[in-house]
From TrEMBL:
One of its GO terms (biological process) is L-histidine biosynthetic process. The lineage of its organism: Bacteria, Bacillati, Bacillota, Negativicutes, Veillonellales. InterPro entries: Aminotrans_II_pyridoxalP_BS, Aminotransferase_I/II_large, HisP_aminotrans, PyrdxlP-dep_Trfase, PyrdxlP-dep_Trfase_major, PyrdxlP-dep_Trfase_small. It comes from Dialister hominis. Keywords: Amino-acid biosynthesis, Aminotransferase, Histidine biosynthesis, Pyridoxal phosphate, Transferase. Coiled coil: none annotated. Pathway: Amino-acid biosynthesis; L-histidine biosynthesis; L-histidine from 5-phospho-alpha-D-ribose 1-diphosphate: step 7/9. It catalyses: L-histidinol phosphate + 2-oxoglutarate = 3-(imidazol-4-yl)-2-oxopropyl phosphate + L-glutamate. It comes from the Bacteria. This is Histidinol-phosphate aminotransferase. Its EC number is 2.6.1.9. Belongs to the class-II pyridoxal-phosphate-dependent aminotransferase family. Histidinol-phosphate aminotransferase subfamily. The modification N6-(pyridoxal phosphate)lysine is found at residue 216.
Length: 357
């Protein structure tokens, strides 16, 4: 294809790369191991919903039933919710609503790639404040950068992907109060942190937006359902760029069903949290690797010089973990926590590769 046909910003653009999967055990994408359709109560409601769906009719533009179910879950007004095909779609909408070419998006590093990727598509610039040693967010650095640049959009990922670090809400509030412009807090993993959400800041600070997803703790990554929570004026603003019928009828129906059965689904989430804490405690005494504390369903591991050999050995053991291209992250893996069986297999591969581990 003629490269000149492309929008200028896309000429040297590297798309978000999804690793090809050949392994049987996939712990590279923070998915749940549990199929919620195996819960009889969920399956019963899903079958009933399927029987009454009308695929010949366009879906509700603002996903009213789902919106109400989310609002009920979070104890907010439905006018504060906008649902999309995963948090990813909502991120795209937010970037398209608030950023012009050359505008600044401020975030921290390392973090989730999509903010920078979407900003780059429209020609906005990302400025990232690097974490302090040990992957602690540099809150003073972020605060200074907000005051210096007054970025059109600031994004804080909390708990952060890939580090797993949870921010004190007071630090998020500091950034929000310093910023004259919108601040997006990405809480895709907040159900695993069980901490107070930045949603509680929205009444006081109308520039706050929060993203959540059903892909992680609700185990519905394949269904594509995420949403933003913000003051209704912000929701109306972002609705301007939303495609009219963005969310299909299946997602609208099944998303609401998952939320209705959250108590049962969260038992699985609770098991993952317990396994995460158990496994991290076990790994922290293993020589030759370093693991970082996590408030999510994954954790970061530094395997130092053993990283290439360990990645290959895991692959041979049919286990896929997430590794990073950037030189400063080359020795790191991000490992999704699923079950004790899987984790014990990971540990035995670590012990095979690293002498005296
Ligand atoms: N935010 C963060 C921090 C994520 O890690 C992800 C998924 N990898 C998302 C948002 C988007 O998730 P989804 O589109 O599946 O809702």
């Amino acid at each position: 294809m003629n490269n000149n046909w492309l929008r200028k910003t896309l000429k040297d653009f590297a798309p978000y790369a999804v690793a090809p999967i050949h392994e049987k055990t996939v712990i590279n994408a923070n998915e749940s191991y549990f199929n919620i359709l195996s819960l009889p109560s969920v399956m019963k409601d899903a079958e009933e919903a399927l029987a009454s769906l009308k695929p010949q009719i366009y879906p509700a533009p603002m996903a009213d039933t789902l919106r109400e179910a989310i609002a009920d879950y979070l104890s907010v007004d439905p006018s504060w919710i906008l649902a999309g095909n995963g948090g990813d779609e909502v991120i795209t909408y937010i970037i398209n609503t608030f950023l012009d070419p050359e505008d600044i998006l401020l975030t921290h590093a390392p973090t989730f790639d999509m903010y920078d990727t979407e900003a780059a598509v429209i020609g906005a610039k990302t400025i990232s404040v690097p974490d302090l040693p040990g992957f602690k967010r540099d809150w003073d650095g972020i605060a200074k950068a907000v005051e210096k640049y007054q970025p059109k959009l600031t994004v804080l990922c909390d708990p952060n992907n890939p580090t797993g670090e949870l921010a004190p809400l007071s630090e998020i509030e500091r950034i929000v109060s310093l910023s004259k412009n919108p601040v997006l807090v990405d809480e895709a993993y907040m159900e695993f942190a069980q901490a107070e959400s930045a949603i509680s800041l929205i009444k006081k600070y109308p520039n706050v937006m929060v993203i959540r997803t059903l892909s992680k703790a609700f185990g519905l990554a394949g269904m594509r359902c995420g949403y933003m929570v913000a003051d209704s004026d912000m929701i109306d603003a972002v609705s301007k760029v939303k495609s009219p019928y963005n969310l299909n009828i299946f997602t609208q129906a099944f998303g609401a069903i998952a939320l209705k059965h959250r108590d049962e689904i969260f038992k699985v989430r609770d098991g993952i949290i317990a396994e995460r804490d158990r496994f991290l405690a076990e790994l922290s005494s293993v020589n030759g690797i370093r693991v970082y504390p996590s408030s999510t369903n994954f954790f970061l591991m530094d395997a130092g010089t053993y990283a290439p050999a360990l990645f290959e050995a895991l692959r041979k053991a049919d286990i896929l973990v997430k590794k990073y291209k950037s030189p400063e992250m080359a020795s790191f893996f991000r490992i999704t926590v699923t079950t004790k069986d899987v984790d014990e297999r990971v540990l035995s591969v670590i012990r095979e590769v690293i002498p005296n581990a």
